[in-house]
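> Could you send the Phospholipid-transporting ATPase prediction when you get a chance?

Sure thing. Input:
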Amino acid sequence: MCATHPRRWNRFAALCAHRTPSQSICLPHSDSQVGSSGQETGALSAHGVCSVLISLAARTASLFMCGSSGQWCRPARRALCPASPSAAVLVKCLLVSACDSVALAMCAGEENWVDSRTIYVGHREPPPGAEAYIPQRHPDNRIVSSKYTFWNFIPKNLFEQFRRIANFYFLIIFLVQLIIDTPTSPVTSGLPLFFVITVTAIKQGYEDWLRHKADNAMNQCPVHFIQHGKLVRKQSRKLRVGDIVMVKEDETFPCDLIFLSSSRGDGTCHVTTASLDGESSHKTHYAVQDTKGFHTEEDIDGLHATIECEQPQPDLYKFVGRINVYSDRSDPVVRPLGSENLLLRGATLKNTEKVFGVAIYTGMETKMALNYQSKSQKRSAVEKSMNVFLIVYLCILISKALINTVLKYVWQSEPFRDEPWYNQKTESERQRNLLLRALTDFLAFMVLFNYIIPVSMYVTVEMQKFLGSYFITWDEEMFDEDTGEGPLVNTSDLNEELGQVEYIFTDKTGTLTENNMEFKECCIEGHVYVPHAVCNGQVLPGAAGIDMIDSSPGPGAREREELFFRALCLCHTIQVKDDDDVDGPRKSPDGGKSCVYISSSPDEVALVEGVQRLGFTYLRLKDGYMEILNRENGVERFELLEILSFDSVRRRMSVIVKSITGEIYLFCKGADSSIFPRVIEGKVDQIRARVERNAVEGLRTLCVAYKRLTPEDYEGICTLLQAAKVALQDREKKLAEAYEQIEKDLILLGATAVEDRLQEKAADTIEALQKAGIKVWVLTGDKMETAAATCYACRLFRRGTQLLELTTKRLEEQSLHDVLFELSKTVLRHSGSLTRDNFSGLSADLQDFGLIIDGAALSLVMKPREDGSGGNYRELFLEICRNCSAVLCCRMAPLQKAQIVKLIKLSKEHPITLAIGDGANDVSMILEAHVGIGVIGKEGRQAARNSDYAVPKFKHLKKMLLVHGHFYYIRISELVQYFFYKNVCFIFPQFLYQFFCGFSQQTLYDTAYLTLYNISFTSLPILLYSLMEQHVSIDTLRREPSLYRDIAKNALLRWRVFIYWTLLGVFDALVFFFGAYFMFENTTVTSNGQIVTTNTHMIFGNWTFGTLVFTVMVFTVTLKLALDTHYWTWINHFVIWGSLLFYVVFSLLWGGIIWPFLSYQRMYYVFIQMLSSGPAWLVIILLVTVSLLPDVLKKVLCRQLWPSATERIQSTRVRGQDRLPELTLLASPQSPSPWAVWLGPHTERGTPTWPPLAGLLHRHRPPGPAPHGWTADGQASGPRL
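Output:
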């Protein structure tokens, strides 16, 4: 039917409401079809359009949806959407939009179209009969990492700075000084505030300018794209979604692209993502099957296709989409798109001449930009303490102002005091409301005493953290020459937190171990094969030939043996790089052609290199065929049909290949826990025994299985996988379900064993951390036996450690409730002798415990109790963990690692936690912990990018915590306490002075002194102290880890220490004020009106008194810092004595010159006149000595009567001794000899405490002769009792 008249639209709508799905509807194809006369041409009235939309909305779901699946019937869509340029295009698009909207509203089917987008490749409209072309708006390709613009910098920066409570407080004080009559000038508050705000704004503005500069360089780089079949060059920022881009070798992808074709014949390209995740290995990406043959600009420009994909997501490793490629056929070809088809912005093209791709995400929607978002802000314990102290001082300030206000009105209750003869009030002042006057006076006192809040402390702390962070990056001892990497500081806000760590959560693979895999052996049908050692393509010295342990299999098992070797050669995602010049040549072990195996997994490379020693060599993947070289030097070709990729949930991967003879195989390899349940045939018991033996020796094990497929089976698998791959919604879930159905009924072939060697000095580092009182937990995805063996090797579990198991295997025999209470009884029986302060000494005479828990058991612990009590077993589990010296968590998923960290972090003790790992699976726990440290390892830099700090090796953690962390905490805690102390000294005399001036709000100090006290006179010495102080030497801290305990639990910022510093400031202020007061107590008036002291004949006045107090105060607080300094350099001397000299010179110039810009100069000649009197000098020296005396006496008495470990070390250093034997015996017993450690895990009074670790012990046998009574193999040579 054709709608050719406005009246006919109504009939058309009515027909739509009653038609059957088999009927079709015609819309006008051109303007001429609408009508031949002028009245009818283009007469598509709003009434007609609305009628059509209303009728379609009523029947869309039943007319145009195929059943209940939610899929459009293509004949209906083509009928509704004829693609022709006409006036009816508007109606056509509205119809389709209405149909889609109603379908979405009425059908909760498979596809969630709201969360997807459609991209038109090359901005080309789909061909006639396809979907309507509806242009969409997307952002351009500009990257904006900057925070400010030229126009919003000042208001936005000021808003952010005044959100800080101290800055906002001083702003209020400054405004009060402007509004009411206050005793001090607004300059005294405004200038320090302006200084702090300006310094911070300059710092933040400079950092943002650098970001603007980097953004402009990135946005203006040239990009090649195709326009009308020709190659055009334009700036990156002008790219739009849908543009087809050409990228050449070694160029960076300008946006997120779908890979269409490449110069390589097989449609692949190699990419490095070092700038995204730090992985330098080459990753292989695959072009769309139907477009990989388009190699020229003309071919690509003629492509008709649309892409449907998800909206931008930050996950770098996940992508879901599909492409519809239109050709001459009626229906388009639909292909799934995944992460292997996506080229990410920031990645670099390698070993490929050029590629073509279509832009799908641009600018701030690219995955790289979405990962710019900052992590949640972490706050250190010192910062929290500082804010609490600030609140206390704010309460003190309010109390002072309130007391003075009340006392003022008590003092003025007598008439002659309220209105003396020399200060008569005006009539308006007498009639002023009493409450208003009291409020004004209260605010004036607040302004007078507001300097007790140290505004400059915040900017000093920021400078200290920022500058102090460079000491880590400059540390040459933490530089790794093998990798060329040094430590990184991603945030300087947590420097002092490194000195407060109580729990360390560490990954195993790549963190404690090298992640440098070496193929050790394989077991096929019970027969063990041990090739000579091959590691990353390098033949280790002294290795030759093939060493086969056990007898070779019989002729009947020969087929299974070769099938196992073929499985290892085929079941992987390795790429072969033949170019000798790229990344350096590496000769294959057989001396053949030069080749390098490239894979994101070191395990895969180790397996392929290992099986190469057993006679089978993987050659390459070419044109969809995998080629291997067998023992007879014959090349075998297998067509690669499907890859079932590895994931951390399934813990296995599979490939489906087809041999030249037509046989179809599915080869599967994975963890034993994921393979054995899916096996129906094979020598399971023999292989399981070998796997468990290898795991106990600390080897990483994988099982290999296979099954033959018939063509019918493969067709079913293809259908199942295709349905899951093209799904836009829940694709991962559907793929997982498909994999579960495919990977079953397997035949077990054998198992492999790969060794991951322990990192250098990992054991020494863990031992030192435990002596420092830090509990170390290992969180790993490995199986229990492998992880436990590694824990013994790195001395986490030691001689005499009793292992407690909370594992799935034990929970099958007992209930969770019974197991937990049994473990609790065991550990609490010894809890009296196992506190945090003594078990970490690791004495062999104490019984300590090690807990092993797996992921499944942890899930049960975290669940609510079944008895409905509302609680769970967390507290009981935590109580057990507190009494264990070490905890091993195995079979952990990434999210479970974070749950463990959060569980400890939020426990009632609120300990400071640190997480360290090297892979993407460690990011969640790194972000969860108080301090996150990434290891710059072989699994990429996801961990390093998301961490607060990054180190090249695990061993560097020892110095980072025990040296740098210790120093950082000592320095900043002294800085915070010192700032509050010197401000108490500064403002308490002002409070006392009010009792002697009738509470008239008269200032004791000159305006210049009020302004410059915290900015100039006392700021630099404490800043230099907080950067350079070393209360003990670096070698001492490294040699005596137990000194770390002296500063644990925020020891230097506890309330006791805070109150001591505050009372010391009050005492010093009393000495300053009353010492000067009693000196000038008796005064007389001379004939010329001057006030002089009767005993010293010194000219005396208000400003002389205040200047004397201020001078004593500046010298006292500066010399107090000098007394606390243990590490003197020429910089300390210059700053401390230079600050005192600067104060004297400034005072002489300020009072010795008539400054023309001052309307009055009350300090003229005051300082010079004061110093001209001998008694003033004597008073200054005497008062400074009396002020410092209590602190000196306290330190001397404490050192003699109750010395801490640190003070003992300091005393030892003063006496010139190297170390204190008594301290070593008390706090950190001597480390056992290497032989004692080696013999420890399996010998404790002749009784094994863990299954025999013979292989592990042999592998880690220490050098040198065995001790008396033992053989070189660890056996007792004499009789045992």
